[in-house]
Amino acid sequence: MSVDVSLREVAEALNMTVEWDSEQSAISVTNEDETYYFKVGSNLVTTKYKKTVNMTSPAYINNGATYIPLNAVVDVFGLELAKSDVAYEISSVGQANIGVGKTIDELYILALENSESLKTAEKNVERYEITQEEAQDDLSSSPSGTGNGTQDATRLAAFQNYYSQGIGLEMAEITVESTKEQIYHDLLSVIESVHTETERLALLEESLEVAKVTVEQNKLKNELGLISDLEYETAKIEYQDTQNNLDMQVLTLDSKWIDLNEMVGYESTTRVNVSNDLRFEEYVEDDLEAHIRWAINKSPSILNLEKQIDLAKTGVRFYVFNAGGTPYDAEEIDVTLARINLEQAKKSP
Questions:
Q1: Quick check: 116 pLDDT over 50?
Q2: N or C: which end of the chain has fewer CB within 10 A?
Q3: What torsion, rounded to 10 degrees, do the Cα atoms 260, 263, 264, 265 define?
Q4: Helix, strand, coil: what percent of the chain each, to 5?
């Protein structure tokens, strides 16, 4: 587990000055002997004497402050901190951000624990377990008649209620599983977004370096009379545009981190190192129709409609005549309507 701390507060605690260096497009930290350049989104730290140091994780911005790993204080500035010194540094720079190394499976468990929709689905299962047990008691205590009478109609109603509660329980359990699958899909999606936006930030940093070199070259060409003032000004504008895009990308990446943290229940400033590689398998075209059929048949709404057909059939199969209930022909129509609803659901997008 690593600790991230504010670069400015650490530097000032070490009597260093912190400034924005437009020429280097970096945050500069200077002491009597050296200047260190930190770039947001980059692990690499450079110095004015061209030395380079790799931090364990990239610098990033949160609430306007730049954060770096605490171990960079040792690696970059060459200091040796005892455990008591580390504790002192953390307390002196304010609330530290905890960077956590997790696997995707570990994050998935956290996302499950933090999901309100899953908690609701699981509570719904508990509810149907209670109502099904009550329906079973009602069925057990309902009287049996001669086959055509009010007692038989009462028992049929109790049986249909028990069957209906069983359908509800099965659908609730399926909803729990489908909710878990959706959470896993959403988790992979947001992790992939973090990776994508991080890569975009790195590309913009490279573009900014190119734009900086172009400005420097055009400045020299302009002084030599090789290009016009307009061309030189255009290069400077392009550099500033790239800088603005980079600043916006930092905010975009930060929003993706917040999405991930909200999903797993972390503080917004936490940055997670995911140890598992993401692998997305594409469906083979030959199997596409089979996959569509599988997805349709597994759909909770489709399964529910199939169960409704079975429930309607019980009204026909165990119909009680002379009990003053729904006409037999109407019960048969209910079966037909249930089948129509199922076919329409399968055809709808």
A1: yes
A2: C
A3: 110
A4: 65, 15, 25
The Cα–Cα gap between 267 and 260 comes to: 10
**Residue pointed to by tokens 């609701």:** 120
pTM score: 0.56
Nearest to 75 by CA among 55, 58, 89, 60: 55
Q: Which residues pair with 66 in a beta bridge?
A: 61
Residue type, 264: V
Residue 183 vs residues 100, 176, 180, 207, 327: alpha-carbon distances, Å: 20, 11, 5, 36, 46
Confidence of residue 63 (pLDDT cuts 50, 70, 90): low
Region 44-57: mean pLDDT is 82
Query: Could you tell me the domains of the chain?
Result: 1-68 (3.30.457.10), 98-280 (1.20.1600.10), 281-349 (no CATH)
In sequence order, which ranges of 265-323 are alpha helices (DSSP H)?
A: 288-298, 300-317
Q: How is residue 212 written in tokens?
A: 């900086």
